[in-house]
Amino acid sequence: MSTYQKGMAPIRTMGDDSDVEEENLVNDYKEQVQFEELDDLEPAGLSMAQQTDDIQSRLQQAAQPLDFSAPLEAKFQSYDSYCSLFHFILNSEGPVDLEPPSHYWAWDVIDEFIYQFNSFSSYRARIARQGNNEEEIQMLRENPNTWGCYSVLNVLYSLIQRSQIAEQLGAMKRNEDPMAVAGDYGSKSLYRMLGYFSIIGLLRVHTLLGDFSLALKTLDDIELNKKAMFARVMAAHFTTYYYVGFSYMMMRRYSDAIRAFSHILVYVSRTKNFQKSAQYDSITKKNEQMYALIAICVAFTPTRLDDTIHTALREKYGDQLLKLQKGGPESLPIFEELFRAACPKFISPVPPDFENPEANIDPIEHHLSIFMDEVKTNMWSPTVKSYLRLYTTMDLSKLAGFLDVKDDELRSWLLVNKQRSKQLRWTETGLLDGELVNISDLDYALQGDLIHVSEAKVGRKLVDWYLRNLSRTYA
Amino acid sequence: MNMNGEDPVERPQEIRNIINGLERYNPEAAGVLEAYLTQQCEEKFCDCNANRALLKLYQLNPDRIKDEAITNILVKALTQFPSPQFDCALHLLSPAQTNPTSSSELSEAVGHLRTLNLQLEGAQYARFWATLDSDDIYADLTTDIAGFEDMIRLRIAQLISQSYREIQISVLENWLGLDDAEEVQKYVVEKCGWKVAEGGLVQIPKNAENEAKKTEIREDVNIDMFARVIKRSWEETA
Q1: Which residues form the signal peptide (chain B) (predicted)?
Q2: What is the pTM of this model?
Q3: Distances in Å between the alpha carbon of B115 and those of B110, B118, B172?
Q4: Are A153 and B213 in contact (CB < 8 Å)?
Q5: Do residues A214 and B91 lie in contact, with contact meaning Cβ atoms separated by under 8 Å?
Q6: What average pLDDT does this structure show over A403-426?
Q7: Element (H, E) at B203
Q8: Is A434 in Cβ contact with B165 (below 8 Å)?
Q9: How is chain A split into domains, by residue range?
Q10: Rounded CA gap, B112 and B109, in Å?
Q11: Chain B partners within 8 Å of A462 (Cβ)
Q12: Which of B:145-204 have CB within 8 Å of A?
C-alpha cells in the first residue's frame, strides 16, 4: 500500500464507500441548496436577463449531485426537473440557443441523471424488500413511472437522435466533415455534447440492466482511443473504460477486459500528478474496483500485465490474487467478494413487488450467481495446468490418481480447460467483433488415455522495455 | 467474427431492422420476434442476438412475458455450448425467474435448464444425457426444438475432435448418449467421418486443434512502435 502514503487519499476498504461518497455528496449538496434558495426568491414575472439567468441556473443545477439521503420528495422533484429541462432542450421550436456552462457540463448532466436513476431504482427495491416503510411504499406505488426505465432510455436515445451524433461520428471516422451531417441541432455544441455523452450513458444503463452485449454494441460509433471526445473529460474517460471492461468480462472476453482496464489504469497512474485532487478522489473508488476486476480476469486468463499495473495489483490484492490463481473451492468466496465489491450497482428495470417483500431479490445476487456458474466450471483449470506443465506425456489414470478424482471427472476438466483456451479478441472493428485466438501457453491433445502436452515458449519481449528505457534516458 | 449463434445468415431484413433500431423497444415487436423464435426452433438455426431483444422486451414489459418463449430461448442458447450465450440470456431474466427457492413453474424450468447448461459447459456429457433421461420435464422443455438431441450430439462430437486423436468407444458411448457400441460406430463413421480401429479405438483425423504442436510466441516488432522515438530524435536534431 506504499503508493498510498504519499499524500494521497487514505485507502478505503472496499464496500464501505458509501460514507465517503456521502460526504462528497453532502459537500456538493451545500452548493446545490444555494441554488434552490435562489429559485425560491425568483419573482413571478421575469425580465429577459433574469430568464437567461434562470435557464443558466437550471443547467447548472442539472449537473449537481443530489444528496445521498435526500427525502423521496426531493428525488421525485429532481426527476421532474430533469424531465422539464430535457423537454425544453428537445422539444422547443428549433434548437435552443445556449452554450453549455463548461466543456464537462454535458458529461456531468448525463452522469448525474443516470446516477440518480440508478440510486432511485436501488432505493425503491430496498424499500420494497424491507417492507416496513408504509408511507414511502405508498408514494412509490402511486408513482410507478417516476424514474422509469423507458423514460430514461427515451431521453438518452432522443438526445442521440436530435444531435445526429451517430452520423457525425461516422463522418469523422471516414475523415469527412461532421458538420455536413450535423443538422440544425447537432451543429450546436450543447446538442453535440449531450448526444455524445448519451451514448456513454446508454453503455452504462445497458450494463446496469445486465445486457452486456448491447452495452458494447452501443459504442460502435465511438472509437476508443485517446483522441476520442470522452477522453477530454477525465471522469467520462474513466467511466467508459470501466463499463467496457466489465461488459467484456461478463462475456468471458477476459483478455479484452484486461486490455480495457489496463489502458485506463495506466493512464490514471501516469497523469495522477496532473489531476486536481478532488477529481482524483472521486475516481479512487472506481480505480480500486478495476484492480479487483483485473484480478478476476487474470485468474481466468493468465496474462502478462503492464509493470505498473502488476505492482499495484500485487499491493492491493496480492493475497486474493494468489488464491484466485490457485483455483479450487477455496477460491470461490474470493471471486464472490471481489465481484460484489467491484460490480456496478445492478438494477431491475421495473418497479418491485411491494406485496411480497421477500420476492424482491437484489439484482446483484442474480448476476453474481450466473457469473459464479462459469467460475465453478473453470475452478479446476489451474490445478490441471499446474500438473500438465511438468510432463510432455502423461497417463490419464495416473494423473487422476495424483488428483484423487475419477478418470471421467478428469476428462471433463481437461476438456473444459482446453475449450476455454480459445477466446474472442478484439481486432480493429466494432467492440463485439474479434478473432478467436489461443490465449494459453499450454496445449495438449489426447490419444486414448495418453495426454500429449506441449508448452509454447514465450520469447522475451523487448520492445516495451527498450522504449521505456529510451524515454527515461532522454526525458 | 462473433460468438456462436450470434448473427446467423438466416436473419431476415425485418428482424434486422427491429434489433438495430428503436423498434426493439416497441412492445408490439414482441409478436414478430416470437414468430421468428418459432422459426428458429423449427428450422434448426439460432439467433441469440434477436432472442435477447425479445428477452429485453419482456424485461421492460413483464405483462408480455410468455414462459414458453423464455424456455425455448434458453434451450436454443444451450445448443451453442461452450459459449456465453446461455448466461447472456439468463442475465436478462428477472432475479425471481432464476431464483431456485421461488416455486413458480417458470423458475423451476429455468433451474432445470441451468443444470443442463452447467453440465454441457463443464464437459460432463455423460451426466448431461443421464439428466435428460431422468425426468419427463426435460422432454417437455425441449419438445419445440427440432433436432435438439442431434444438435447437441453433433456439437459434442465436434468438441471431442478438437481434443482427441484417438478415443475409446466406451467413452464415446456415454458422451454421445447412444445405446451401444454398434450405434456409436455407425454414428462416428457416418456422421463424423472418423475411423474405428481394432480393439474399439476410434481414430479422429488430424486437425489444427488436436495436434498440440510446439510453438514459440514471438514479439511482433514493427516500425510504428518506434515512431515516437524516431520522430523525437528527428525533431531534436532538426
Answers
A1: none
A2: 0.87
A3: 9, 5, 22
A4: no
A5: no
A6: 94
A7: strand B201-203
A8: no
A9: 19-375, 392-455
A10: 5
A11: 219
A12: 159, 162-168, 171, 174, 201
Residue-wise pLDDT tens digits, A294-305:
999 999 999 889
End-to-end CA distance of chain A: 28
Contacts of A221 (CB under 8 A, 6+ apart): A165, A166, A169, A170, A173, A199
Mean pLDDT of A271-278: 64
**Average pLDDT of chain A, as a whole number:** 85
Record: contact B49-A359, CB cut-off 8 A = no
Give ipTM to 2 decimals: 0.90
For residues A335 and A300, the answer to whether their CB atoms sit within 8 Å is no
pLDDT (0 to 100) of residue B98: 84
- For A76-113, how does the pLDDT look when each residue is reduced to its tens digit (9 = 90+)? 999 999 999 999 999 988 898 888 888 889 999 999 99
The label of the residue with cell 432464476 reads B98
Q: Please list, in sequence order, all residues whose beta carbon lies within 8 angstroms of the beta carbon of residue A356, skipping any fewer than 6 positions away.
A: none
Whether A457 sits inside 8 A of B217 (CB atoms) is yes
Residues B173, B126: Cα–Cα separation, whole Å: 9
**Paired residues of A450 in beta bridges:** A395, A447
What is the DSSP annotation of A420-467?
TTEEEE--SS-TT--EEEE--SEEEEEETTEEEEEEPEEPP--HHHHH
Contact B212 A408 (CB under 8 A): no
For residue A472, list chain B residues with Cβ-Cβ distance below 8 A.
none
- For residue A235, name the pLDDT band (cuts at 50, 70, 90): confident
DSSP state of B177: T
Q: Kindly list the structural domains of chain B, giving each domain's residue range(s) and its CATH number in brackets, ordered by start.
A: 13-146 (1.25.40.250), 162-214 (1.10.10)
Lookup: cell for B19: 434489433
Which stretches of A304-458 are DSSP H helices? Answer: 307-326, 332-342, 363-378, 381-388, 396-403, 407-419
Beta-carbon neighbour count of residue A219 at 10 Å?
22
